[in-house]
Amino acid sequence: MSDPSKIKRPTQRTIAAKMGISVGAVSRALANDPQMAEETRALVQKMAKELGYSPDRAAQRLRTGRTQVINLILPPHEEILGFGTLLIRGISARLENTGYHLVVLPDFGPDKSAEQIRRVVRDKLADGIIFSRTTPDDSRIKFLLEADFPFISHGRSELATPHPFVDCDNYAFALQAAETLIGRGAKRLGILLPPERFTFRQHLQHGFMTAVRAAGVGYEILDGISLDSNANAISANIQKRFAAPEAPDGLVLPGDVSGLAALAAIQDLGLVPGQDVQLVVKQTSGVFDLVRPKVASLYEDLSEAGEKLADLLLKRIAGAPVAELQYIQPVLGRLPANDTLSDTQLRAPGVS
Fold first, then answer.
1. Per-residue burial over 34-66, b = 16 or more CB atoms within 10 Å of its CB, e = otherwise
2. Beta-carbon count within 10 A of 9 CB
3. Is residue 78 classed exposed, middle or buried when 0-12, 13-18 and 19+ CB atoms within 10 A define those classes?
4. Bond preceding residue 293 cis, omega within 30 of 0
5. Which of 21, 115, 209, 300 could tie 25 with a disulfide, CB 3.0–4.6 Å?
6. What is the pLDDT of residues 276-288, one digit of tens each?
7. Closest CA to 162 of 300, 312, 305
8. For the whole model, what pTM was predicted?
Protein backbone atom coordinates (compact mmCIF):
# COMPACT_ATOMS: atom_id res chain seq x y z
CA MET A 1 0.00 0.00 0.00
CA SER A 2 1.47 3.36 -1.03
CA ASP A 3 2.27 6.04 1.51
CA PRO A 4 -0.04 9.05 0.83
CA SER A 5 2.68 11.41 2.07
CA LYS A 6 4.94 10.25 -0.77
CA ILE A 7 2.39 10.69 -3.56
CA LYS A 8 3.55 13.52 -5.79
CA ARG A 9 0.85 16.20 -6.04
CA PRO A 10 0.26 17.75 -9.46
CA THR A 11 1.56 21.27 -9.97
CA GLN A 12 0.99 23.97 -12.55
CA ARG A 13 4.09 22.63 -14.29
CA THR A 14 2.37 19.21 -14.52
CA ILE A 15 -0.67 20.79 -16.21
CA ALA A 16 1.55 22.80 -18.56
CA ALA A 17 3.48 19.67 -19.61
CA LYS A 18 0.26 17.72 -20.23
CA MET A 19 -1.21 20.49 -22.39
CA GLY A 20 1.94 21.68 -24.11
CA ILE A 21 1.60 25.29 -22.96
CA SER A 22 3.64 27.54 -20.68
CA VAL A 23 3.38 27.56 -16.88
CA GLY A 24 2.53 31.25 -17.11
CA ALA A 25 -0.46 30.47 -19.32
CA VAL A 26 -1.65 27.84 -16.83
CA SER A 27 -1.30 30.30 -13.98
CA ARG A 28 -3.32 32.94 -15.82
CA ALA A 29 -6.04 30.45 -16.74
CA LEU A 30 -6.39 29.19 -13.17
CA ALA A 31 -6.62 32.80 -11.99
CA ASN A 32 -9.46 33.37 -14.49
CA ASP A 33 -7.56 36.10 -16.33
CA PRO A 34 -10.25 37.85 -18.43
CA GLN A 35 -7.67 38.74 -21.09
CA MET A 36 -7.18 35.04 -21.86
CA ALA A 37 -9.57 33.26 -24.23
CA GLU A 38 -12.48 31.71 -22.35
CA GLU A 39 -12.04 28.39 -24.19
CA THR A 40 -8.39 28.15 -23.10
CA ARG A 41 -9.28 28.95 -19.50
CA ALA A 42 -11.97 26.27 -19.52
CA LEU A 43 -9.59 23.63 -20.96
CA VAL A 44 -6.88 24.39 -18.39
CA GLN A 45 -9.35 24.32 -15.51
CA LYS A 46 -10.80 21.03 -16.79
CA MET A 47 -7.31 19.48 -16.94
CA ALA A 48 -6.52 20.79 -13.44
CA LYS A 49 -9.67 19.14 -12.11
CA GLU A 50 -8.91 15.84 -13.85
CA LEU A 51 -5.40 15.79 -12.41
CA GLY A 52 -6.61 16.69 -8.92
CA TYR A 53 -4.62 19.92 -8.85
CA SER A 54 -5.00 22.24 -5.88
CA PRO A 55 -2.80 25.28 -5.23
CA ASP A 56 -0.13 25.17 -2.53
CA ARG A 57 -1.64 27.84 -0.31
CA ALA A 58 1.42 28.24 1.90
CA ALA A 59 3.61 28.92 -1.14
CA GLN A 60 0.95 31.18 -2.62
CA ARG A 61 0.78 33.23 0.55
CA LEU A 62 4.56 33.61 0.67
CA ARG A 63 4.63 34.65 -2.97
CA THR A 64 1.62 37.01 -3.06
CA GLY A 65 0.98 37.94 0.56
CA ARG A 66 -2.62 36.76 0.13
CA THR A 67 -4.47 33.95 1.87
CA GLN A 68 -7.03 33.36 -0.92
CA VAL A 69 -9.64 33.19 1.86
CA ILE A 70 -12.86 35.17 2.31
CA ASN A 71 -14.40 35.20 5.79
CA LEU A 72 -18.16 35.37 6.31
CA ILE A 73 -19.18 36.36 9.85
CA LEU A 74 -22.54 34.63 10.13
CA PRO A 75 -25.10 35.56 12.80
CA PRO A 76 -28.10 33.27 13.41
CA HIS A 77 -30.75 35.54 11.75
CA GLU A 78 -33.55 33.46 13.27
CA GLU A 79 -36.24 35.73 11.81
CA ILE A 80 -35.25 34.67 8.26
CA LEU A 81 -35.64 31.05 7.19
CA GLY A 82 -32.50 29.72 5.53
CA PHE A 83 -30.57 33.01 5.79
CA GLY A 84 -27.14 31.40 6.13
CA THR A 85 -27.73 28.67 3.54
CA LEU A 86 -29.02 31.09 0.90
CA LEU A 87 -26.28 33.66 1.46
CA ILE A 88 -23.52 31.02 1.42
CA ARG A 89 -24.96 29.52 -1.76
CA GLY A 90 -24.68 32.87 -3.55
CA ILE A 91 -21.21 33.69 -2.21
CA SER A 92 -19.89 30.22 -3.11
CA ALA A 93 -21.32 30.43 -6.62
CA ARG A 94 -19.46 33.68 -7.26
CA LEU A 95 -16.18 32.44 -5.74
CA GLU A 96 -16.15 29.28 -7.84
CA ASN A 97 -13.10 29.13 -10.09
CA THR A 98 -11.63 32.31 -8.57
CA GLY A 99 -9.12 30.52 -6.33
CA TYR A 100 -10.81 31.97 -3.25
CA HIS A 101 -12.20 29.82 -0.46
CA LEU A 102 -15.05 30.78 1.85
CA VAL A 103 -14.55 30.29 5.59
CA VAL A 104 -17.64 30.83 7.76
CA LEU A 105 -17.16 32.15 11.29
CA PRO A 106 -20.28 31.85 13.50
CA ASP A 107 -21.45 34.86 15.50
CA PHE A 108 -23.71 33.85 18.38
CA GLY A 109 -23.46 36.73 20.80
CA PRO A 110 -23.24 40.50 21.22
CA ASP A 111 -19.95 41.97 19.98
CA LYS A 112 -18.68 38.55 18.89
CA SER A 113 -18.44 39.62 15.26
CA ALA A 114 -16.28 42.61 16.26
CA GLU A 115 -13.90 40.25 18.10
CA GLN A 116 -13.80 37.89 15.09
CA ILE A 117 -13.04 40.77 12.73
CA ARG A 118 -10.22 42.13 14.89
CA ARG A 119 -8.65 38.67 15.04
CA VAL A 120 -8.92 38.14 11.26
CA VAL A 121 -7.24 41.50 10.57
CA ARG A 122 -4.58 41.11 13.29
CA ASP A 123 -3.56 37.58 12.26
CA LYS A 124 -4.09 38.13 8.51
CA LEU A 125 -6.42 35.14 8.29
CA ALA A 126 -8.28 36.33 5.19
CA ASP A 127 -8.11 38.76 2.29
CA GLY A 128 -11.60 40.11 2.85
CA ILE A 129 -14.55 39.98 5.25
CA ILE A 130 -18.34 39.88 4.80
CA PHE A 131 -20.68 40.62 7.72
CA SER A 132 -24.27 41.77 8.33
CA ARG A 133 -26.72 43.35 10.80
CA THR A 134 -25.21 46.81 10.58
CA THR A 135 -25.88 49.74 12.88
CA PRO A 136 -25.89 53.48 12.03
CA ASP A 137 -22.59 54.04 13.88
CA ASP A 138 -21.09 50.60 13.25
CA SER A 139 -17.78 50.13 15.11
CA ARG A 140 -16.81 47.20 12.85
CA ILE A 141 -17.04 49.38 9.76
CA LYS A 142 -15.02 52.14 11.46
CA PHE A 143 -12.31 49.65 12.45
CA LEU A 144 -12.03 48.11 8.98
CA LEU A 145 -11.96 51.50 7.26
CA GLU A 146 -9.17 52.67 9.58
CA ALA A 147 -7.28 49.40 9.06
CA ASP A 148 -7.78 49.74 5.27
CA PHE A 149 -8.86 46.09 5.20
CA PRO A 150 -11.15 44.92 2.35
CA PHE A 151 -14.71 44.22 3.51
CA ILE A 152 -18.33 44.50 2.52
CA SER A 153 -21.40 44.61 4.73
CA HIS A 154 -24.87 43.22 4.14
CA GLY A 155 -26.59 46.38 5.29
CA ARG A 156 -25.66 50.06 5.53
CA SER A 157 -24.41 52.48 8.17
CA GLU A 158 -24.77 56.25 8.51
CA LEU A 159 -21.06 56.95 8.81
CA ALA A 160 -19.67 59.96 6.97
CA THR A 161 -17.03 57.82 5.24
CA PRO A 162 -18.60 55.71 2.47
CA HIS A 163 -18.10 51.96 2.61
CA PRO A 164 -18.91 48.94 0.39
CA PHE A 165 -22.32 47.36 1.00
CA VAL A 166 -25.18 45.33 -0.41
CA ASP A 167 -28.55 46.09 1.17
CA CYS A 168 -32.14 45.11 0.54
CA ASP A 169 -34.40 48.05 -0.32
CA ASN A 170 -36.34 47.86 2.94
CA TYR A 171 -37.75 51.35 2.37
CA ALA A 172 -39.39 50.16 -0.87
CA PHE A 173 -40.64 46.98 0.81
CA ALA A 174 -42.38 48.81 3.67
CA LEU A 175 -43.74 51.51 1.35
CA GLN A 176 -45.21 49.03 -1.14
CA ALA A 177 -46.50 46.73 1.59
CA ALA A 178 -48.32 49.57 3.32
CA GLU A 179 -49.69 50.94 0.04
CA THR A 180 -50.98 47.49 -0.83
CA LEU A 181 -52.80 47.16 2.51
CA ILE A 182 -54.30 50.62 2.09
CA GLY A 183 -55.37 49.72 -1.45
CA ARG A 184 -57.23 46.73 -0.03
CA GLY A 185 -59.18 48.92 2.34
CA ALA A 186 -57.13 48.70 5.55
CA LYS A 187 -57.76 51.69 7.83
CA ARG A 188 -55.29 50.99 10.64
CA LEU A 189 -51.91 49.49 9.80
CA GLY A 190 -49.41 47.81 12.08
CA ILE A 191 -45.77 46.98 11.43
CA LEU A 192 -43.26 44.78 13.21
CA LEU A 193 -39.80 46.37 13.24
CA PRO A 194 -36.25 45.18 14.03
CA PRO A 195 -34.55 46.32 17.25
CA GLU A 196 -33.74 50.04 17.32
CA ARG A 197 -29.97 49.50 17.05
CA PHE A 198 -30.12 48.28 13.44
CA THR A 199 -29.99 50.65 10.46
CA PHE A 200 -32.62 48.79 8.46
CA ARG A 201 -35.23 49.56 11.14
CA GLN A 202 -35.03 53.21 10.05
CA HIS A 203 -35.47 52.27 6.39
CA LEU A 204 -38.52 50.11 7.14
CA GLN A 205 -40.08 52.74 9.39
CA HIS A 206 -39.47 55.52 6.86
CA GLY A 207 -41.16 53.59 4.03
CA PHE A 208 -44.10 52.62 6.24
CA MET A 209 -44.63 56.15 7.58
CA THR A 210 -44.40 57.66 4.09
CA ALA A 211 -47.33 55.49 2.96
CA VAL A 212 -49.60 55.92 6.00
CA ARG A 213 -49.10 59.68 6.18
CA ALA A 214 -49.81 60.11 2.47
CA ALA A 215 -53.05 58.11 2.84
CA GLY A 216 -54.03 59.60 6.21
CA VAL A 217 -54.80 56.21 7.77
CA GLY A 218 -54.19 55.09 11.35
CA TYR A 219 -51.05 53.17 12.23
CA GLU A 220 -49.05 51.61 15.03
CA ILE A 221 -45.67 50.00 15.57
CA LEU A 222 -46.21 46.70 17.35
CA ASP A 223 -45.09 47.16 20.94
CA GLY A 224 -43.27 44.74 23.23
CA ILE A 225 -41.79 42.63 20.41
CA SER A 226 -39.31 43.09 17.57
CA LEU A 227 -38.25 41.17 14.50
CA ASP A 228 -35.63 39.47 16.73
CA SER A 229 -38.26 38.12 19.16
CA ASN A 230 -38.89 34.39 18.97
CA ALA A 231 -41.91 33.11 17.06
CA ASN A 232 -43.92 32.19 20.17
CA ALA A 233 -43.46 35.66 21.66
CA ILE A 234 -44.51 37.32 18.39
CA SER A 235 -47.57 35.10 18.06
CA ALA A 236 -48.66 35.63 21.68
CA ASN A 237 -48.20 39.40 21.45
CA ILE A 238 -50.15 39.71 18.20
CA GLN A 239 -52.93 37.50 19.54
CA LYS A 240 -53.22 39.71 22.62
CA ARG A 241 -53.25 42.88 20.51
CA PHE A 242 -55.93 41.60 18.15
CA ALA A 243 -58.12 40.52 21.04
CA ALA A 244 -58.10 44.15 22.28
CA PRO A 245 -60.13 47.09 20.91
CA GLU A 246 -59.09 49.04 17.80
CA ALA A 247 -56.74 46.37 16.53
CA PRO A 248 -55.02 46.92 13.17
CA ASP A 249 -56.75 45.54 10.08
CA GLY A 250 -53.50 45.40 8.10
CA LEU A 251 -50.05 44.09 9.07
CA VAL A 252 -46.59 44.55 7.54
CA LEU A 253 -44.23 41.71 8.54
CA PRO A 254 -40.58 41.91 7.38
CA GLY A 255 -39.63 38.23 7.77
CA ASP A 256 -40.77 34.65 7.15
CA VAL A 257 -40.92 33.70 10.84
CA SER A 258 -42.85 36.81 11.91
CA GLY A 259 -45.28 36.25 9.04
CA LEU A 260 -45.96 32.64 10.09
CA ALA A 261 -46.31 33.69 13.74
CA ALA A 262 -48.80 36.43 12.87
CA LEU A 263 -50.78 34.10 10.64
CA ALA A 264 -51.06 31.56 13.47
CA ALA A 265 -52.14 34.23 16.00
CA ILE A 266 -54.81 35.66 13.72
CA GLN A 267 -56.30 32.29 12.84
CA ASP A 268 -56.25 31.13 16.47
CA LEU A 269 -58.59 34.05 17.21
CA GLY A 270 -60.96 32.89 14.48
CA LEU A 271 -60.07 35.78 12.16
CA VAL A 272 -59.73 35.21 8.43
CA PRO A 273 -56.52 36.49 6.76
CA GLY A 274 -57.38 38.47 3.65
CA GLN A 275 -60.83 39.33 5.00
CA ASP A 276 -60.65 40.39 8.65
CA VAL A 277 -56.94 41.22 8.48
CA GLN A 278 -54.77 41.95 5.44
CA LEU A 279 -51.09 40.93 5.55
CA VAL A 280 -47.99 41.56 3.46
CA VAL A 281 -44.85 39.59 4.31
CA LYS A 282 -41.24 39.88 3.19
CA GLN A 283 -40.05 36.36 2.51
CA THR A 284 -36.73 34.86 1.56
CA SER A 285 -37.43 31.13 1.63
CA GLY A 286 -40.46 30.78 -0.64
CA VAL A 287 -42.47 29.24 2.21
CA PHE A 288 -45.37 31.65 1.69
CA ASP A 289 -45.93 30.25 -1.79
CA LEU A 290 -47.18 27.14 0.05
CA VAL A 291 -49.12 28.80 2.88
CA ARG A 292 -52.93 28.68 2.83
CA PRO A 293 -54.83 30.94 2.84
CA LYS A 294 -52.49 32.70 0.45
CA VAL A 295 -50.73 35.79 1.77
CA ALA A 296 -49.33 38.63 -0.34
CA SER A 297 -45.56 38.77 -0.11
CA LEU A 298 -42.50 40.53 -1.42
CA TYR A 299 -39.36 38.51 -2.03
CA GLU A 300 -35.76 39.23 -0.99
CA ASP A 301 -33.35 37.08 -3.01
CA LEU A 302 -30.58 36.23 -0.55
CA SER A 303 -28.71 34.02 -3.02
CA GLU A 304 -28.44 36.98 -5.37
CA ALA A 305 -27.34 39.13 -2.43
CA GLY A 306 -24.60 36.60 -1.66
CA GLU A 307 -23.34 36.65 -5.25
CA LYS A 308 -23.30 40.43 -5.24
CA LEU A 309 -21.48 40.59 -1.89
CA ALA A 310 -18.75 38.28 -3.16
CA ASP A 311 -18.49 40.08 -6.50
CA LEU A 312 -18.09 43.52 -4.96
CA LEU A 313 -15.65 42.27 -2.31
CA LEU A 314 -13.42 40.72 -5.00
CA LYS A 315 -13.46 44.07 -6.78
CA ARG A 316 -12.55 45.82 -3.53
CA ILE A 317 -9.62 43.44 -2.98
CA ALA A 318 -8.50 44.29 -6.53
CA GLY A 319 -8.54 48.00 -5.63
CA ALA A 320 -11.87 49.24 -7.02
CA PRO A 321 -13.12 52.55 -5.54
CA VAL A 322 -15.85 52.41 -2.90
CA ALA A 323 -18.24 54.47 -5.03
CA GLU A 324 -18.54 51.47 -7.38
CA LEU A 325 -19.15 48.98 -4.56
CA GLN A 326 -22.57 49.93 -3.19
CA TYR A 327 -25.73 48.12 -4.27
CA ILE A 328 -29.34 48.42 -3.09
CA GLN A 329 -31.17 45.24 -4.01
CA PRO A 330 -34.80 45.59 -5.13
CA VAL A 331 -37.59 43.47 -3.65
CA LEU A 332 -39.76 41.40 -5.99
CA GLY A 333 -43.50 40.74 -5.84
CA ARG A 334 -44.93 37.27 -5.21
CA LEU A 335 -48.72 37.51 -5.22
CA PRO A 336 -51.26 34.67 -5.15
CA ALA A 337 -52.78 33.93 -8.55
CA ASN A 338 -56.26 34.89 -7.40
CA ASP A 339 -55.16 38.26 -6.01
CA THR A 340 -56.92 41.38 -7.23
CA LEU A 341 -53.65 43.30 -7.62
CA SER A 342 -51.27 42.75 -10.52
CA ASP A 343 -47.71 41.61 -9.89
CA THR A 344 -46.34 44.93 -11.12
CA GLN A 345 -48.18 46.73 -8.32
CA LEU A 346 -46.02 44.90 -5.80
CA ARG A 347 -42.76 45.11 -7.68
CA ALA A 348 -39.91 47.37 -6.71
CA PRO A 349 -39.17 50.39 -8.91
CA GLY A 350 -36.86 49.55 -11.80
CA VAL A 351 -37.57 45.78 -11.70
CA SER A 352 -39.23 44.42 -14.80
1. eeeeeebbeebbebbeeeebeeeeeeeeeeeeb
2. 10
3. middle
4. yes
5. 21
6. 999 999 999 888 8
7. 312
8. 0.80
Q: How far apart are CA 89 and CA 95, in angstroms?
A: 10
Q: Report the range of poorest mean pLDDT among 156-165, 232-241, 335-344.
A: 335-344
pLDDT tens sequence across 272-328? 998 999 999 999 988 888 888 889 999 999 999 999 999 999 999 999 999 899 999
| Cβ atoms 179, 208 nearer than 8 A | no
Residue type for position 312: L
Helix %, strand %, coil % of the chain (to 5) = 45, 15, 40
pLDDT tens sequence across 138-153: 999 999 999 999 999 9
CB 188 within 8 A of CB 246: yes
Strands 101-106, 296-299: pairing kind? unpaired
